[in-house]
Specification:
The chain contains 2 helices and 4 strands, in the order E-E-E-H-H-E. The protein has a 4-stranded antiparallel β-sheet with strand order 1-3-2-4. The chain is flat. The model has no long low-confidence stretch (mean pLDDT 82).
């Protein structure tokens, strides 16, 4: 599962055990992804990146690395 917001001054949090916690950060949005084995198999991380890229990064010059994994 994943959730995102373009609202300012808002913190997103997820809780994991043996899953992968990922935060996607950009000037326009923040996204928190909880990637368990089912989510990884269903490509939750690349699908989230693709949706946010299509929504917020219209200019090819804006597309840059914004992925980081926290553990």
């Amino acid at each position: 599962d994943a959730h995102w917001s373009s609202e300012t001054n808002l913190a997103l949090m997820i809780k994991t055990a043996d899953c992968i916690p990922c935060m996607l950060v950009h000037d326009e949005f923040i996204c928190a992804i909880h990637a368990g084995w089912r989510g990884v198999l269903n490509e939750i991380i690349p699908k989230s990146v693709a949706q946010l890229t299509n929504r917020f990064l219209k200019n090819a010059n804006d597309k840059q690395s914004f992925f980081n994994q926290f553990s």
